[in-house]
Design a protein that fits this description.
Elements: H1 3-32, H2 48-52, E1 63-68, E2 84-91, E3 100-113, E4 130-135, H3 137-149, E5 151-156, E6 169-171, H4 172-176
Antiparallel strand pairs: 1-4, 2-3, 2-5, 3-4, 3-6
Length: 177
């Protein structure tokens, strides 16, 4: 036999085998799967664990706002739900103005880190790209404006540290002095 015939016979045999296997597995999978009608879950049917994942516990008069953070901006992954943070805004250099930082918000409660998929996960380290904070509407507007126009850095507070300091802007020139 020539090489062409061997390749032709091998190809035909391979296609036939693949077709038979596909028919067997596709047909078997269709028989095993049942069509399930749409089910709607009402709140009363949720377990306590499932209820915890449905809504954030936001205090009256407050709102939840999520901000994007990287590893360093998010305190290298040490922020957890229930912690308190300070929010620092790093203002870009404008024409004839020097870059500056501003302690924007203090003692802000962390509702969640990462997003819904990370809520309820009990691990030493869960990587996250967002942090959801509990803020007043005014704080939320301030934070949204800063997040859109400046860099945001979070500072993790120690447990029980509720002290606030006078807010002031710090420039590069002040760091050099």
């Amino acid at each position: 036999m020539t090489n062409k015939r061997v390749w032709l016979i091998a190809s035909i045999f391979g296609l036939i085998t693949a077709g038979i296997l596909m028919i067997i597995f596709v047909d078997t999978n269709q028989q095993d799967s049942e069509i399930v009608e749409e089910e709607f879950v009402v709140e009363e049917e949720l377990t306590e664990e499932e209820e915890d994942l449905t809504a954030l516990p936001i205090a009256d008069g407050y709102r939840a706002i999520s901000i994007a953070v990287s590893g360093t901006e998010g305190v290298s992954g040490f922020i957890r739900s229930g912690d308190y943070v300070d929010v620092v805004s790093l203002l870009p250099s404008l024409e004839e103005e020097v870059p500056a930082s501003q302690l924007l918000l203090q003692n802000i409660y962390v509702l969640s880190v990462g997003g819904p998929s990370n809520r309820g996960v009990e691990e030493d380290y869960v990587p996250y790209e967002t942090v959801t904070l509990e803020v007043t509407p005014e704080q939320g507007a301030t934070l949204a404006l800063a997040a859109e126009n400046a860099s945001i850095v979070l500072m993790l507070r120690g447990e029980g540290d509720g002290e606030t300091v006078r807010q002031r802007q710090i420039t590069i020139e002040q760091l050099v002095d």
